[in-house]
TrEMBL record:
Organism per entry: Terrabacter aeriphilus
Entry annotated with the keyword Ubl conjugation: no
Alphabetic keyword roster: Membrane, Transmembrane, Transmembrane helix
Stretches that traverse the bilayer: 20-44, 56-77, 97-117, 129-150, 201-217, 224-241, 247-265, 272-292, 363-387, 399-432, 457-475, 669-690
Protein name: O-antigen ligase
Superkingdom field: Bacteria
Length: 836
């Protein structure tokens, strides 16, 4: 029992839940829990956060909360069809959606955990905890170098049901292997991937956890770690090169540039010299090894560029066309391949099927899953944090910038769901804590403040959501009750007689004919309005001769009639096209037969004439003529054989194998209503925020203190006068009182306090300050009806002029003796007993 309590107490110590994941990650990988262990640790960290009285959040956290809301609403659109993707429902999408949502939430918990436990967890200890993850990545890379054929069944695989292991997604998560084969070189190269499923994921984690290792093992407080760190980095370089990860190489170069530039700006010129020397030494070492050839060969053979480009373009096009606001919730399989609508994986070519839409890069995942709006929220959260901390040159900020920069640099090519998201979340906590340390007087926002925003303005938010839903309903209603259906045709292969003559058609050609003007005209006649090619989705079953035409029309009867008409036209056009091709081949063969016959007769006449006359050398001439006649006769025979085959060939017409069965098309309604509601939510929250920020009155002291970033003192309620204002002003000497409100009472209060404190005369006017009092403690005077934005603007102008804003005095009644004594005590550095 005591041992159990000891273990429970150990795991509840600040930081130990995170340490249990990073220090033992290789062990969790062997067990098969590496893809889920941090999710369990995040639950423990979340419970610890929930026990705190207030949960602080970084600036701009609202954008991240909105992004999480976009991820959650993605469950609504999981089973809608995406343009360019295989249509149909799939229950596995719920699993992948939930898995990604869990990682987003876990990364959020890690960020808030490190950001809130400031007294319990120093950033140096956090770096030491995170550095074990880099070491685990490097050790796993060396496993791929030394034992590339190592692959085994994890303990979790032994206990999971066999049916569950049939899922490629589950196998991807729980089956350990140490390398990923790369077939782009002359000989297959083993790319280290342990303890992760893919080499690219390994490279991303390498880049994201590297700054924490450098911070923990190479700074002055590293102790015994400092002399060991260069050895670890040198050894880690080997699998980094062997992995052939161009994205990793770019991220490492970008990280080095960021570190050098920030160090130079901070005045640490020595690091620039060390970096240049280290780069030169590294180049010299690589030049003398086979790694140089490996790098050059990898750069000269970008085997995946075309696929990534095509997939990225197809992803964006699908989202823009189908669901630009909320996306499709999760990834979708591509219809066909990028070269054929009927392409797909086979036993001979298992890699012929392209990756799913929304993969091959975290940016494309966010764009496809959460739409363009969700992607904007995601990027804005990180970019705004980087921009706010650009002038803070501490090493902790550099760690956060490099970790986040590694993610942003590689998000075009690497998927980031997993432990790399934890590194990025902790990196955000580094920026957040250093931003607070640089401005200790700034009022921080709590998670409850966002909830309070919604609670205070729930009417506005609800109305905006209702308006968004109403607008989407109106748009969809104008389109009528649409019905969707698919007609499938079996298109037999063309006769060999045509294929041999280059007149055969592929499934891509058949698909192009299905978009012909005749087909669209026949469909338009049935539905009563022009039908465009964008409205007719043409696809084919992989590696088959099944052609599918999908159409969403105004009602079931018209949709069925339109597809039947399209099928009839496609069949009749194909029959006419094949008949014309057969006639063309027959005419060509007949013409060639006539020409060959005429040539044969001409040669035969000459041969007969030579045989009768027998001139000198006739034997040689007869031999040549005999050969020509034989060749001509063989050609005539070959042509006659082709004509016989052609006459015997029966052209099989295309037939309908699955007639259209219209069902009510709900995809448009689902996407439209979801997008309208989420846009309404976004607008409603924006109005609520600006109503608070721009329209709130100074009587809301918490919001006033947050915006002005200074404590608030009330003149009319002694219970609301804390010692914060005194502590803020004390040490400045005499205080200057500035009226930021046009109210006569506020102006008079500023004059009275300034005159009685013997510091300065209260300035008349909204923002004026005596020039001879720059550098003194300045107190802004407003009344309770003043807008917070007015006080905020005054504070910003005062600070730009070199003044220190020590607090805000809200005039709720005319000043009396005790109040003046307190204010005077602030200006002279004295304090009353109540303030102590």
């Amino acid at each position: 029992m005591r041992s159990t309590r000891t273990r429970t107490a150990w795991i509840r110590r600040p930081g130990n839940a995170l340490l249990a994941v990073t220090f033992g990650f290789l062990g969790w990988w062997v067990v098969g829990l590496s893809a889920a262990i941090f999710l369990l640790a995040a639950v423990l960290m979340g419970i610890e956060l929930a026990h705190r009285r207030r949960i602080l959040v970084p600036r701009g956290f609202g954008a991240w909360l909105l992004f999480l809301a976009w991820v959650v609403c993605g469950v609504i659109v999981l089973n809608v069809d995406a343009p360019g993707a295989v249509p149909g429902d799939s229950s596995s999408r719920y699993m992948t959606w939930a898995y990604r949502l869990a990682w987003y939430v876990a990364a959020t918990v890690a960020m808030l955990y490190v950001g809130n436990l400031r007294r319990e967890l120093s950033l140096l200890r956090v770096s030491r905890i995170m550095s074990w993850m880099f070491i685990a990545t490097a050790v796993g890379g060396w496993l791929g170098v030394l034992v590339p054929h190592l692959e085994f069944t994890s303990l979790l695989e032994h206990v999971l049901p066999g049916g569950l292991l049939q899922s490629d997604f589950v196998t991807f998560l729980v089956h350990p292997q140490v390398v990923q084969l790369y077939a782009g070189a002359a000989t297959d190269t083993a790319r280290p991937s342990a303890p992760f499923p893919y080499s690219n994921i390994w490279g991303l984690n390498f880049a994201c956890f590297l700054p924490f290792f450098v911070h923990a093992w190479m700074t002055r407080d590293a102790g015994w770690r400092r002399p060991v760190a260069p050895v670890v980095l040198a050894l880690a370089l080997v699998p980094a090169i062997q992995s052939l990860n161009r994205g990793l190489w770019v991220a490492l170069i970008a990280s080095a540039v960021v570190v050098v530039v920030r160090s130079v700006l901070a005045g640490r010129i020595k690091l620039l010299v060390v970096s240049v020397g280290g780069a030169a030494l590294l180049a010299a070492v690589l030049a003398g090894t086979h790694f140089a050839d490996l790098i050059i060969h990898r750069l000269d053979n970008p085997t995946s560029n075309d696929t990534r480009t095509s997939l990225g373009v197809a992803t964006v096009e699908s989202v823009v066309e189908g669901s630009p606001i909320v996306g499709f919730g999760t990834t979708r399989d591509v219809q066909g391949t990028f070269t054929s609508i009927a392409g797909g994986a086979t036993t001979e070519c298992p890699q012929c099927s392209p990756p799913a839409l929304g993969t091959q890069g975290h940016l494309w995942l966010v764009v496809f899953s959460q739409g363009l709006v969700g992607a904007g929220l995601y990027l804005s959260f990180y970019l705004r944090a980087l921009w706010r901390t650009r002038r803070i040159l501490s090493s902790e900020v550099t760690v956060g910038v490099v970790a986040i920069g590694a993610h942003l640099t590689t998000m075009f090519v690497y998927d980031s769901i997993g432990m790399s998201m934890v590194a990025v979340g902790v990196g955000m906590a580094y920026l957040w804590r250093e931003e607070v340390r640089a401005a200790p007087d700034a009022v921080e926002v709590t998670l409850g403040a966002y909830l309070g925003l919604v609670r205070r303005h729930w009417v506005v938010v609800t109305v905006c959501v209702a308006l968004g839903l109403g607008a989407a309903y109106g748009v969809q209603s104008r389109q009528g009750r649409a019905s969707g259906a698919t007609v499938s045709l079996f298109v037999p292969a063309d006769p060999p007689a045509l294929v041999d003559r280059g007149l055969g058609t592929s499934m891509d050609t058949e698909g192009a004919y299905a978009h012909s003007a005749e087909v669209l005209a026949a469909m338009s006649a049935e539905v009563g309005h022009p039908v465009t090619t964008d409205e007719v989705f043409v696809s084919a079953d992989p590696n088959s001769r099944i052609l599918n035409l999908r159409f969403v029309g105004p009602g079931a009867p018209r949709t069925r009639s339109a597809l039947n008409a399209a099928a009839d036209v496609v069949i009749s056009q194909r029959n006419a096209r094949l008949e014309a091709a057969v006639a063309t081949v027959r005419n060509e063969l007949s013409s060639r037969a006539a020409a060959r016959t005429a040539a044969y007769l001409a040669v035969d006449r000459v041969y007969t004439l030579v045989d009768v006359l027998r001139p000198a050398g006739s034997s040689i001439q007869q031999t040549a003529l005999r050969q020509q006649r034989t060749a001509a006769r063989a050609q005539i025979t070959d042509i006659e054989m082709h004509l016989s085959r052609l006459d015997a060939t029966e052209v099989s017409p295309a037939v309908v194998v699955t007639p259209p069965r219209p069902t009510r098309h709900r995809d448009g309604w689902i996407i439209g209503l979801t997008g309208g509601g989420m846009l309404g939510l976004l607008v409603g929250l924006g109005l609520a925020y600006y109503r608070d920020a721009l329209g709130a009155r100074a009587r809301r002291s918490d919001e006033l203190a947050r915006r002005v970033q200074a404590p608030v003192l009330w003149s009319g309620d002694p219970r609301r006068q804390g010692s914060e204002l005194s502590a803020a002003v004390r040490g400045y000497g005499a205080a200057t009182f500035v009226a930021a409100s046009p109210s006569p009472d506020a102006r008079e209060l500023a004059r009275t306090l300034g005159r009685q404190s013997h510091s300065a005369t209260g300035t008349v006017g909204p923002h004026g300050v005596p020039a001879d009092h720059a550098g003194t403690a300045t107190i802004i005077v407003v009344d309770g009806r003043t807008r917070i934005r007015v006080a905020d603007t005054a504070a910003k102008r005062l600070r730009m002029g070199g003044h220190s804003v020590a607090g805000v005095l809200v005039d709720s009644r005319r000043p009396e003796g005790p109040l003046l004594d307190r204010i005077q005590a602030i200006g002279t550095g004295r304090s009353t007993r109540s303030e102590r």
